[in-house]
């Protein structure tokens, strides 16, 4: 192929999801398709900055309507989002939102996700923000575009816009005259800032929002079609495999490049400092050569890892920043009973089913990278810095990956592909990590310690709550080239940006560390460590998973001390009406309180509003325990969810169900294995996850729809409530309160025997 654009077009042509062709673009790589306003006058920039704060969702940062919606004179409608599809179904939901307000059937719209050469910059797709931020932006942008087109048609027809009817991008008068969106767009300029107020449709008239439109990404996935970046194939593509150090900070001393270079199919040995890779014509040839190159490599000792037996005590010692996130006190009745407890969680890994992968091509001037990164714009900026290139000459195109759940190796493998491609102009380079690399070089979720002290008065009300947590960084996202693993291995290595805590109300390790319950006295301290014994970063729900487990376990223990039913105890301490609604709905649908159960069977309940900002979830579960092995089976789970206006009911159920299964795996079984020498969880045998045979057969998700209410992110909302409900169900089944994760297995067996 002759140039970079041809490869980009070919990549889009070949890469199809559920039969929907990605649209090819003719613009130069790295140049955004959406118009950007260049403001020379500083005062005007400040004025626009203030004006955008009143806009909905991501319109605040991308205020121009044609950043989101483009219409050609021929009537072709393309909708853009800066968010990415991670398997959560948001591509379908966002398309529904745009289609609803544009009065179009979804199949008539071409919908494109994050691409630095086309889409608005919405930063990261993380934290259950996609529907809340991008969905709100699309809802309002689409409504305003529709209104502008209808007003233009009304002026053309010399009628009142209120009498016009819109169906599938055609505007009609009562007397039969009509105008397509393509014709109307010639009468109006969509390159204008969005307004703070939008002519939104009455939710009672919705035909697309609120319906379970089949997900666009599912058909090819269940039929084995081209679905992921791992499936990509470009003409003349070469395959690369990297050789990683055995331990952190090890430096490459030597390797037998000459012998490997003579192996069948090998095209090049790429080396820059300790960044080492082999490029071959075929994928298996690359794997065989990588194994030989790895076997011949000699490395320095690197640094030792912490003792896993003392990791939690060590964490408390190295946590140097104290951040008070809640501190208020009101008069209360005297305490008569006090509970103090300590909870611990070990490091966990993402466990992505498909090892991280990327495809890149460099034409001598411009670089294009197909990546399953959660943030194509931050990645583009870091790649440009690493390669000393202008940002405009680097284009990152999101392509779904097989497995994500947070900050795994997607950005790092993209950097590998970019480095190798830049050394081999004209050749598409595909890099995929090996399984042991995906496991041992993961950005693990940090180990944590939580401590809580709470007191009851004589009536059973909580009068005092003191909470502290210790954790290192849950967010080492890409903010500079030094955050890219290969960039730190170069002959002239980049240095990672310092670790800093994420601030409330989102929070990082302290996410959901502040209970939503009404408590008269509360003290919550986040003890943050900028030093990370292991490489860590974001994983689904960040600290919410463990903080909610701690809080909800403590709520049950306090209810037990007070002699009050756990659900009733929660309701006595909850003033938030929407929270009460989900608690009561989950309890009712589960059949709470349950009658006496057989031995080694238990039920548990938990609640949280994700980040105290997003979806409300209440959860009731039933478990059975095998005393001889400590194996725990989640028999049944019933969830009640309030995510505001529901876009796709089946999509929300998908995410809540998936969160229940994944959280059960984390809570009951998962823990990273390592010693002072190296990471030992290098495959599925050394890092067991929940098996299909253990997936609960009965999961019910009951939704509370609130038409017209703001969208609330739900994708990560069930992680914490599932963990808390499981912990409480195990206490109910065994009479033993387990405060060290994972909860199941040998430790549980010994505790039952004691």
Describe the structure.
With 754 residues, the protein is an alpha+beta fold. It folds into three domains: 31-212, 2-Layer Sandwich (Aldehyde Oxidoreductase, domain 4); 229-301 and 350-440, Aldehyde Oxidoreductase, domain 4 (2-Layer Sandwich); 553-754, Aldehyde Oxidoreductase, domain 4 (2-Layer Sandwich). Helices cover 29% and strands 20% of the residues. A seven-stranded mixed beta sheet has the order 11-12-9-19-16-17-18, sandwiched between helices. β24 and β25 (631-642) form a beta hairpin. The longest helix is centred in the N-terminal third of the chain and has 28 residues, at 130-157. The protein is globular, with a radius of gyration of 27 Å. It starts with a helix and ends with a helix.
Question: What is the fold's blueprint, element by element?
Answer:
Elements: H1 4-14, E1 16-17, E2 20-21, H2 42-52, E3 69-71, E4 77-80, H3 90-102, E5 109-112, H4 130-157, E6 165-167, E7 170-172, E8 178-180, H5 181-184, H6 218-223, E9 238-243, E10 252-254, H7 257-261, E11 266-272, E12 275-280, H8 283-296, E13 298-299, H9 311-318, E14 321-329, E15 337-345, E16 357-362, E17 367-371, H10 376-387, E18 394-398, H11 410-422, E19 429-432, H12 435-440, E20 448-456, E21 462-472, E22 521-529, H13 544-562, H14 566-572, H15 577-590, E23 601-609, E24 616-626, E25 631-642, H16 649-668, E26 698-704, H17 719-734, H18 746-753
